[in-house]
Amino acid sequence: MDRCRYAPTPSGPAHPGTLLAGLLAWLDARSRGASLLLRLEDVDPRRCTLEHADEMRAALRWLGLAWDTELIQSERRLEHEAALDLLEQAGLLYPCSCSRAQARRAGQRAADGGFRYPGTCRARTLPAQGWRGCGEALRLRLPDGRLELDDESGLDFSQNPLAEMGDPIVRRRDGTLAYHLAVVVDDAADGITRVIRGRDLAASTAIHRVLQQALALPTPSYRHHFLLLEEHGGKLAKLHGAVGWRALREHLTPEQTCGMLARTAGLRATDAPITPTSLLEDFAWQRVESRDQVMRWTGSALERLGPEPEPAKS
User: Fold this and answer.
1) Whole-angstrom Cα distance, residue 51 to residue 11?
2) 3-state DSSP assignment of residue 42
3) Which residue has the higher pLDDT, 254 or 105?
4) Comparing C-alpha atoms, which of 84, 283, 302, 45 is closest to residue 176?
5) Spatial strand order in the sheet of 194-198
6) Is there a domain that residue 201 lies in?
7) What is the C-alpha end-to-end distance of the chain, expressed in Å?
8) Residue-range definition of the domain harbouring residue 56
9) What is the pTM of this model?
10) Cα–Cα dist 213/240, whole Å
11) 20: domain CATH number?
12) pLDDT of 221-246, one tens digit each?
């Protein structure tokens, strides 16, 4: 039996994008009779709090989503450190003193829209005490080569992660474990066989594949779904924090919110109120929108403005 997960970061109020991702992960798992895990990815203490974690649980319950198991990522510190030990033994870790500003100044855009690390410290080695005695950030030394990646969405996310992303940080200078390492270790520890997540994380899949290979961990299947975008002048940005779930519930019932999300996802022709359980009756990924959708919060309702405009032809 498949084992699936929904793994939000409790760094602020749940917003419509959070609820959409949770709903699609829930529908995928329940439609195939898979077990479903809620994993709160809270390894970053600067952004994640217990209050935010409680709010995330409350928002998902409010929408009508339930989980078979719940785990807290920060409780796996020992497993994450054991993975660093293995990467050190394989000669794949090196210390880095570079700042984000230095990467920005290098001006090499990465596949995820950020800035590619140019490899300034790549020739450095760990101190004699190993990574545990290193007070600097730790980076993963990526192999140079293209990885062919199959995504259930049909989109091609194949890439050469070294050339297109650059060596990623796996532990920050302050000791915080990075997302890339923690999510790979946790998916394996949790027995995850399917990963349903937003397209904004697709560019990270090649790095995750490298880590899975280096740590001799299984690779789950991946499906990356469309995102909600907001109208922001001439620039489109992910709908993150635009309106929190508590503001939503002042004007919408859970069923109305679910109906709005279902219509936006292409699962219903109207935004009539509906429950997640009712959506299971005819859920199929073939019916889910493939293009990102632009939304606007009017102060009392979410207005769907349609798909993201196609890029202008040159």
Assistant:
1) 9
2) coil
3) 254
4) 45
5) 69-72, 35-40, 3-6, 194-198, 221-225
6) no
7) 48
8) 3-67+226-307
9) 0.93
10) 32
11) 3.40.50.620
12) 999 999 998 877 443 455 544 688 89
